[in-house]
Amino acid sequence: MATNFITPNFLLESQSAERLYFEYAKDQPIVDYHCHLPPQQVAENRSFENLTQIWLSGDHYKWRALRAAGVNERYVTGDASDWEKFLAWARVVPLTVRNPLFHWTMLELNRPFAINDRFLNEQTAQGIWEECNAMLATADFSARGIMTQMNVELVCTTDDPADDLNFHKKIAKDVNAAVFKTRVLPTFRPDALFPRICDTPQGVVKYLEYLRRFALAADTDVNSFAALRAAFAKRHAYFHENGCRLSDCGFELFQWSPPTTGVNLEAAFAKILNAQTLEQAEIIALCSVLLTDLGRLDAEKHWTSQLHIGAMRNNSTRIFNLLGPDAGCDSMVDGAYGKQLSQYFDALDKELKLPKTIVYNLNPDANYLLASLIANFNDGSIPGKMQYGSGWWFLDQKNGMEEQLETLSNMGLLSLFVGMLTDSRSFLSYTRHEYFRRILCNLLGSEMERGLIPNDFPWIGGIVKRICHDNAKEYFAFDA
Question: Which is it for strands 311-312 and 331-332: parallel, antiparallel or unpaired?
Answer without folding.
Answer: antiparallel
